[in-house]
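Subject: DUF6708 domain-containing protein

B.,
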Amino acid sequence: MFRQTHYPMRFNRRDRKVYAWSQDMGVVTMNWDDIQFYTSEATKSQDRRGMSREEIRGYVRDRNGNLLYHVVFFKYEGLKGMKGVLEIWELVRRYMEEHDGHIQAYQVDQRLLDLDGKRESFIHSLIQAKQVLADSRAVQLILAPAVMWAGTGRLIAKWTCRVPRWPEWVEEKCQVAPDDPYVRNRHTEAPLTAKEILWPLFCYLLGWAEVLVILYFCFRGYL
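Prediction pasted inline below.
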């Protein structure tokens, strides 16, 4: 809360630069070829305390070996765990290093999050909340109260944080040609289907209903 809604990155394959929002340093610029990547997972003790994480981090050192930047590049919230993080990493690696990487990224069958310069919408928060908890609809239905808590917490966090804005010099460096046939953004994505909207909304409302019923039976003697 009271930070940035998210910490975006831009990967410029033309200049081989990475522009990243950092919690401590604002916007930083790194050379792709200078970044040393590594995986980071929580210990069993941290998992038991609810501090699980599956991330790919990276750092850059100067000529004297001093640490310049240390950034979390990729993380995945869901049942895939580290496999999900590595899938994201491989997509970006191909984009930056392979001659047809931009085409491969364009062809990925994955809906884009509509976050560039704006807050996550109400329905997208619910979609992310249910996907974090489970991929199975049956499990999502069973865990409806957890979906409600996760969705409510996510909404509060997003609306108490600031939306990150790229400075003009980054926008200038990352301009996309108007005739680029491989552009994917909020304007090229198909709108959400009724099923994609109604299912997370149903789980969210069901979770609220179940919690209210539980609270009623717990405290009805005091009413």
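The chain has eight helices and six strands.

T.
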